């Protein structure tokens, strides 16, 4: 029973999650693309930078948050930078990228601190929502997504830290074999990536990550894609 | 609410789901950075007056009828069915917002809250719950557009009276043609308001500058926009576009009215003529030496209130400051200023509604700003702002004089 469940989470569900993510985003783009545009412009002033530079600044430096509340800004930046590093780390789980090993490091980047930074940021975002006035404007989606993210990060980070500092066996070669096989649609047996005692932890990490990917296009997480479009309108 | 009505209202929401609206409805993370950025919230610190909450009232309806998750798992995003309570919430959200877009300056995604609230306004019209005053004023403007010929003679009579005022002010021998109308190939078509002051002062300035100009038969104000009716908004705006096109003018100069400026300048798309605010025009006249003003003529401390549609939404920041800097000996800037300047609370058609107590309370931010400058004269360049600044002045007993920029220039013109 467990073996079947484990295999389902590690193989078919990953495909379902990726398909939902990709098709969901394509659907979202199609809806937007086929929606009518507007004749005029919705921009605001002043515009001190050329449009593209301005959008990049607004999206990545988040000056609106910096001007309003520095602590929130700090966690926004930490969260997003760590998320990118984590994404790169997961790429290295698929196969070796020489360009990413310019500074030689053990997979993942950041010696475990990236995951910790993400967890702390997510907890900050979560607990912030329990405080007034943020509790008044939050909807269940806001809490549930953060909890889901926290769980994904918690199990992922735990495995990473345990493999570095404790007697937790994580086989990078097996991981690459498993993930590469997934990408070539010839799924391999995912049973030996971690020691059999820790399969539950890996399965939970992948389960929550799958759920997160499936929810991504249909939740506020699409801000990571559409933010550039709305910021473009502000400067158009 | 009956099913048929819900279906009808659903279609109205659908009609507003343009591309920007899709972005704005999807990207908000409810981060709360905009929460306290609205002047209404500053004056009445209730969740209902926070920009994010206003947008959420609309967003929850959108989720219910346009997102599968809203239909299948309404709990997930707090999706809400249309009913009487929601319609009341929509009304409070839509008509407590002036459309100033200050909240946009604090939004990390640049979400245009008033754009989202255009859905609320349209739903209120569909439900028959929109403010009657605005609907009547919009209808009246539409009617004037449809039967302008029957208004023309009466309007010319009024204008002839105003021409004598311009003549006295400029000390000219004749009042003839000081306010020209229906002048083909004029360089400028000036669009005023219904008040005489919105015509006399600009007419003085245009004549002093020897401008080849003509006056529009229409008022610039667009109550279709304030009411939230896109068809009426378009019709009311098109009256002026048609007039300008038929007269073959090069430039349309809009009276001191923020929304009246923003609509043709930014919301109608490309037009065959240039659109300018009277403030920009005055600035150019002074810069080009076409008119002269008494420099340093105003000794009292003076401050300037940026009309939101002219400043934040129109980019006209430096021109009024240049003019006032020349006129006043003691010009004082408000804090915060320019794009972060607080809205006075009179925009979005709110001054036309029976809500003076509300506007006094929501004008607190502006009152505090004015008081902090210590200025004795508050100048603005928008009719709605002037009316609201006077409401604030009277409501809080401020010892200040409220003046329009055009009036101030006209009074201090060297003729």
Question: Could you give the topology of this structure?
Answer:
The complex is a heterodimer of chains A (236) and B (415).
Chain A: H1 2-10, H2 12-33, H3 51-61, H4 63-68, H5 70-94, H6 113-128, H7 134-137, H8 140-165, H9 172-183, H10 199-215, H11 223-235
Chain B: H1 3-15, H2 19-27, H3 39-43, H4 51-66, H5 68-72, H6 74-77, H7 84-94, H8 113-127, H9 132-146, H10 149-170, E1 188-191, H11 197-208, E2 213-215, H12 223-227, H13 230-247, E3 251-254, H14 258-267, E4 274-277, H15 278-287, E5 298-305, H16 318-327, E6 328-332, H17 356-362, H18 364-373, E7 377-380, H19 383-396, E8 401-404, H20 405-411
Parallel strand pairs in B: 1-2, 1-3, 3-4, 5-6, 5-7, 7-8
Helix pairs in contact in B: 1-8, 4-7, 4-8, 7-8, 9-13, 10-11, 11-20, 15-16, 17-19
Structural notes for this entry:
- The complex is a heterodimer of chains A (236) and B (415).
- By secondary structure, chain A is mainly alpha-helical.
- Chain A is 68% helix and 0% strand.
- The radius of gyration of chain A is 20 Å and the shape is globular.
- The model of chain A has no long low-confidence stretch (mean pLDDT 91).
- Chain B is α/β, with parallel strands linked by helices.
- Chain B has helices at 3-15, 19-27, 39-43, 51-66, 68-72, 74-77, 84-94, 113-127, 132-146, 149-170, 197-208, 223-227, 230-247, 258-267, 278-287, 318-327, 356-362, 364-373, 383-396, 405-411, and strands at 188-191, 213-215, 251-254, 274-277, 298-305, 328-332, 377-380, 401-404.
- In chain B, strands 2-1-3-4 form a four-stranded parallel sheet. Chain B has a four-stranded parallel sheet with strand order 6-5-7-8, with helices on both faces.
- In chain B, α10 crosses α11 (197-208) and α15 packs across α16 (318-327).
- Chain B is globular.
- The N and C termini of chain B lie far apart (64 Å).
- In chain B, 55% of the residues are buried.
- Classes of the chains: A mainly alpha (236), B alpha/beta (415).
- The interface between A and B is large, with 46 and 54 residues.
């Amino acid at each position: 029973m467990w073996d079947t469940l484990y295999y389902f989470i590690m193989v078919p569900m990953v495909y379902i999650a990726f398909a939902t993510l990709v098709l969901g985003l394509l659907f979202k783009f199609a809806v937007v693309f086929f929606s009518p545009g507007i004749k005029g412009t919705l921009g605001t002033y002043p515009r001190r930078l050329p449009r593209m530079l301005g959008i990049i600044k607004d999206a990545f430096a988040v000056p609106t948050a910096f001007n309003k509340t520095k602590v929130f800004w700090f966690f926004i930046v930490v969260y997003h930078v760590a998320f990118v590093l984590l994404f790169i780390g997961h790429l290295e789980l698929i196969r070796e990228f020489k360009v990413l090993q310019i500074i030689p490091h053990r997979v993942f980047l950041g010696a475990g601190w990236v995951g910790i930074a993400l967890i702390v940021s997510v907890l900050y975002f979560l607990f912030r929502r329990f405080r007034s006035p943020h509790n008044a404007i939050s909807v269940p989606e806001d809490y549930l997504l953060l909890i889901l993210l926290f769980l994904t990060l918690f199990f992922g980070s735990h495995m990473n830290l345990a493999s570095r500092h404790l007697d937790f066996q994580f086989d990078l070669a097996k991981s690459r074999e498993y993930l590469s096989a997934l990408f070539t649609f010839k799924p391999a047996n995912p049973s030996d990536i971690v020691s059999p005692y820790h399969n539950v932890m890996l399965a939970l990490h992948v389960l929550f990550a799958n759920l997160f990917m499936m929810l991504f296009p249909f939740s506020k997480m699409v801000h990571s894609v559409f933010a550039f479009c709305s910021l473009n309108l502000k400067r158009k | 609410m009956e099913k048929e009505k819900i279906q009808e209202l659903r279609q109205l929401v659908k009609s507003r789901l343009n591309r920007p609206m899709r972005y704005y409805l999807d990207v908000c993370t409810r981060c709360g950075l905009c929460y306290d950025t609205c002047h209404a919230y500053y004056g009445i610190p209730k969740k209902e007056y926070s920009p994010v909450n206003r947008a959420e009232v609309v967003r929850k309806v959108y989720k219910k009828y346009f997102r599968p998750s809203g239909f299948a798992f309404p709990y997930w995003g707090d999706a809400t069915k249309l009913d009487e309570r929601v319609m009341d919430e929509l009304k409070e959200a839509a008509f407590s917002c002036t459309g100033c877009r200050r909240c946009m300056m604090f939004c990390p995604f640049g979400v245009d809250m008033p754009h989202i609230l255009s859905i609320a306004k349209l739903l209120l019209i569909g439900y028959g719950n929109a403010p009657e005053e605005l609907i009547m004023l919009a209808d009246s403007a539409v009617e004037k557009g449809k039967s302008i010929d029957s208004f023309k003679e009466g309007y010319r009579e009024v204008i002839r009276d105003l021409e004598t005022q311009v003549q006295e002010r400029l000390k000219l021998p004749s009042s003839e043609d000081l306010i020209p109308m229906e002048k083909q190939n004029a360089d400028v078509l000036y669009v005023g308001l219904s008040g005489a002051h919105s015509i006399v002062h600009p007419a003085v300035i245009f004549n002093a500058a020897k401008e080849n100009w003509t006056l529009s038969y229409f008022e610039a104000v667009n109550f279709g926009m304030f009411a939230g009716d896109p068809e009426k908004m378009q019709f009311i705006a098109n009256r002026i576009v048609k007039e300008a096109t038929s007269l073959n003018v090069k430039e349309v100069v809009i009276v001191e009215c923020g929304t009246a400026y923003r609509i043709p300048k930014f919301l109608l798309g490309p037009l065959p003529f240039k659109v300018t605010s009277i403030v920009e025009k005055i600035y150019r006249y002074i810069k080009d030496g076409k008119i002269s003003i008494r420099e340093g003529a105003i000794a009292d401390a003076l401050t300037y209130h940026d009309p939101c549609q002219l400043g934040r939404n129109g980019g006209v920041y430096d021109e009024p400051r240049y003019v006032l800097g020349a006129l006043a000996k003691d010009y004082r800037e408000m804090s915060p200023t320019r794009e972060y300047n607080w809205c006075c609370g009179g925009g979005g058609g709110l001054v036309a509604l029976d809500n003076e107590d509300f506007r006094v309370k929501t004008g607190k931010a502006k009152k505090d700003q004015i008081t902090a400058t210590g200025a004795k004269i508050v100048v603005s360049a928008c009719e709605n702002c002037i009316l609201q600044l006077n409401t604030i002045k009277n409501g809080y007993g401020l010892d200040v004089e409220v003046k329009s920029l055009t009036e101030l220039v006209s009074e201090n013109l060297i003729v």
